[in-house]
Amino acid sequence: MLDINNMKKSDFFYDLPEELIAQTPIEPRNASRMLVLGRDSGEITHDHFYNLCGHLRKGDLLVLNDSRVLPARIYGEKEDNGTFIEFLLLEQKENMVWEILCRPGKKAKVGTRFTFGGGKLRAEITDVLEDGNRIARFECEGSFFAALDEIGQMPLPPYIKEKLEDKERYQTVYSHELGSAAAPTAGLHFTKEMLADIESRGINIAYVTLHVGLGTFRPVKEDKVLDHKMHSEHYELPERTAALINDTKKNGGRVIAVGTTSCRTLESVASLYNEIRPCEGYTDIFIYPGYEFKVLDGLITNFHLPESTLIMLVSAFAGYENTMNAYSIAVKEKYRFFSFGDSMLII
Question: Is the pTM of this model over 0.90?
């Protein structure tokens, strides 16, 4: 039995063979397997994502995160001596000014200038933050984002070693709002045809935007879970989405978040305002066992890293024992794990 007041990160460890970490996306997108977990019963069944509608009802609402991933990893050199540098763009602070990770960091002192893509982008380091991140001011001729799209690489997680042949496979088919440093991967399984089919069955679809920061994937360093401090991410909940959520609840339908980012957006707004309303802001909500959900009735998610805040969120929603049992079975059944891996429906 989990002691909610004294949770250790080791409580959320599971043993994962390296060969189960998906290195490439599956084709077609919706051909991935889907483990279906009963939230109350703990019952587990096995299916495929293309059969998702078989687990939904008319009047249900899917809430998707429409954030689009920046090709945020760029490679360049110091202007004065050509020394190699790698930047990873994290968050736009103002026009042409970004918070970045860079390596080797010792080459990126305040005032140092770099060039990328044969001069398509240039940057100067203007500040070094307490956590070691840098602030960089960029210069370019023409559109910054066009230059980034031309020379940037997708910021794939470090556990993916294979080269991604098609950048769009690390984007959801409905991605729209540019600004994430990593994909909201639960949505990678949807095709445009599948989304149209879902709506044709009377199942509604709504969108929120939460720009995923790399902090999502930072390991929990503190042994005691409650000592962990979450990063902050920008979100927006539009008027149409708020209305659909409230109507769905009023009419007895289920609100199903696609991904932990959509979940965190909805629960942040409900926690802040005691209702769902149109708004935008920043959230650093940390959801772990013991949290009382205010909006969610279901969750579509991928399989997450051991000891991560994401598996803690899933454990909060599905129950700790149910979740760890489901992960054990997923390993045994050789599901594909992490960003390009298989899906899990909790309902």
Answer: yes
